[in-house]
Amino acid sequence: MNISTTCSACSQRQEFELNWPITVHPCQKCHQELLSHPTQAFLNQEPWDQCPLCGASHLYQRKDFNQKLGIGLIVLGVVLAYFTYGLSLLLVTGIDWWLSKRIPPMGACYRCKSEFRNSKLIRSMEPFNLQLYDYYRNLR
Ligand SMILES: [Zn+2]
Ligand SMILES: [Zn+2]
User: Fold this and answer.
1) CA of 136, nearest ligand number
2) 95 pLDDT more than 90
3) Which ligand has its closest atom nearest to the C-alpha of 5?
4) pLDDT at residue 131 greater than cutoff 90
5) Does residue 59 come out as left (phi exceeding 0), alpha (psi in the -120 to 50 range) or beta?
6) Checking phi first, is residue 68 left (phi over 0); if not, alpha (psi -120 to 50) or beta?
């Protein structure tokens, strides 16, 4: 698994590869341990019950997909629909569907915004939930 996170002590952006069994992953700048909230599930490589970096109990998965690209594609389809008698809408819907099948999901933490990639564990995370997102945003 690849993890991209921000050190809670010095705010330095960090990226590292996580392998089991888990070893220490200190921050490259201030040496604070990044994986400061490991649980038994995390250590056993089971579906996570909390974020191993900040301890928040909510994680989500979404497509690792450039959202602007997706929206741009839809807009293009709508604009061209007039000239193509709606065919462009079908086409962009098809492309969108095709992309969503091919792009693997990424996991993320609502609280610390860490990102997780390249792991089957991500598929066990809940889909993105706007209410939870707002909840954690209000906490900050
Ligand atoms: Zn640090
Ligand atoms: Zn977190």
Assistant:
1) 2
2) no
3) 2
4) yes
5) beta
6) alpha
